[in-house]
Structure formats: structure tokens, C-alpha cells
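From the pipeline queue, job 12 of 40. The input is one protein chain; the requested action is below.

Action: predict structure.
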Amino acid sequence: MRIIILNGWGHSAAHWNPIAEKLVRFGSVETWDLPGFGNEPLVSATWTITQYADWVQEKIGGTEEDIVLIGHSFGGRIASILAARQPPWLRALILIGAPSIYRPSAKIRIKSTIASLVKPFVPSSLRCKLLPEELRDAEDAGIGRVFRNAVTNDQTKALPMIAVPTLLIWGANDDAAPMALAHEIKTLIPGSKLVILPGLGHNVHLENPLLTYGTIEQFVESV
């Protein structure tokens, strides 16, 4: 078995090393830096999630190995796109706090509307100060377009095409990918299982590595 882990936004492969070291009991484990993160150079500042998925698929290449794909947050969005393509090498999928559907809250929709209305009247030097912190950081890093493309990506129609055993792991206190998304994604992916980790937020693998590993371990043993 080959396990591949895709990092979340702003993270790198190194964040997964403690869990990866334990997963080697199942076979080979690879933690990848996605383009623009960690040690992997950015390919394009305009890439969409689909182009990231193409990059991962090309890197995996033609293989007859059984692969378990694990994706956290941004990496999970990419992993779910790949899974919906039904590649023959995919044995199972694990999505961790991965908002693969776009469901902006009423608050966000109102803010977006107001921002578009006032944008012509606000000096460009002040606009960045009105952006959410994560988007502001992305703009500073030159990947604001990638961030926007990722956040608004919606896989509602693609998720039902996932045909492998799928585990969803969510922190009960996740404020980046609210629990409502987890429950809806579960209904969209046939036969998927949702495990909610109490007291944890968006980065469950950092907040409680042991519990996160144990949850992954139990699922991998079953596939």
C-alpha cells in the first residue's frame, strides 16, 4: 500500500511527519509539498484546484499500486477532485477538514456585496486592509488568485462520483470548514463515513496528532 498526504493551505509536508512516521506500518508513506508551499516552487499564480489536481495526478503517474490519498483542507479539495475521476490506483480516500463544496454564509455574501460596491471608491492602498487576514497573507505571497480560486471551488456535482471507501475527519470546533459542510459532504459521497473529533479545530493533525493518527489507522486497517 502507498499512502500520499497532501498539505493544507499555508502548511507543508513537514507538518505531517509525526503521523507519517507511524503510518509506515501500512507501507510507503509520502508527504508532498504542493506547488507554492514548503519546498515546492509555485508553478502559476493563477492555478485553479483542478490544475493542482492535474499536477498531483501527473506526479503519481501510471502505477498499479493501491494508493490511499489523504488531503487536509486545501489538499483535501484536490484529493476529492482526483477521487471523483475514479483513477484505477485509488484504494481509499481520507478528507480532513476539506471544504470541497462552496457554501458561503449570509455574512460572507453581504460582505462580498458591500466590498464590490465600495471598491471603486476605495484607494488601492487601502483595499488590502479590508481583506480577510488569510486572503491578505495570500496576496502578500503572490498567490491571492490561487486562494480565491480554491475557496470558491464547488464540487457538489463531482463528489457523488467518488466510488472508493471515504473517511471524513472533522474537528468539532472547526471554524474554517464548519460542521454543516462535513455533514453535507457525507451525504454527497456514497457510503462515506464521518468521524468528528471533539474539542478540536481545523488543524486536527497538529492539535492532537495521536487521536488523528488513531482515527486514520482504524480506517486504513479496514480497507
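Job complete. The longest helix spans residues 209-222.
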